[in-house]
Design a protein that fits this description.
The structure is a single chain. The chain is α/β, with parallel strands linked by helices and 118 residues long. The chain has helices at 33-43, 61-76, 88-96, 109-115, and strands spanning 7-13, 16-25, 48-59, 80-84, 105-106. The chain has a single domain (7-111), classed as 2-Layer Sandwich (Transcription Regulator spoIIAA), CATH 3.30.750. It has four helices and five strands; from the N terminus they run E-E-H-E-H-E-H-E-H. The protein has a five-stranded mixed sheet with strand order 1-2-3-4-5. The protein is globular, with a radius of gyration of 13 Å. The model has no long low-confidence stretch (mean pLDDT 93).
Length: 118
């Protein structure tokens, strides 16, 4: 069976970088496109990120590690990483790993974007 690789694309709304993640969030021992992209933007002094997880079909333990790595990298710069619209299975993994208490999770993009302005 062919696995759908992780794809990340970004767009910017005001000062918030929205990163849409699709496929499997499972970097394993290979490249980590999500962490790499966020690190690049942090180096360019962007610090507010909304991760659109609608298209994530699976998240592994290394995918959870990738989210934590992104969170820590952004937090060092006094920024924010918030999550948008994870599937029920991804929400379950976030709950099991206690990350639902770390990340703000939104189901509405407009509300998520507004939360950065507070």
């Amino acid at each position: 069976m062919m696995r759908r690789p992780t794809k990340v694309i970004s767009r910017k709304v005001d000062s918030v970088r929205i990163i849409r993640v699709t496929g499997r969030l499972d970097p394993g021992d290979g490249p980590d496109p999500l962490s790499d992209m966020i690190q690049k933007f942090v180096e360019e002094e962007e610090i507010d990120f909304l991760l659109d997880l609608r298209g994530v079909t699976y998240i592994s333990s290394t995918g959870v590690g990738s989210l934590i790595k992104c969170y820590r990298s952004v937090l060092k710069q006094k920024g924010h990483v918030k999550l948008f619209s994870p599937s029920q299975s991804v929400r379950n993994i976030l709950a099991i790993s206690k990350l639902d208490g770390v990340f703000e999770i939104f189901s509405d993009e407009k509300a998520a974007l507004a939360s950065f302005k507070k």
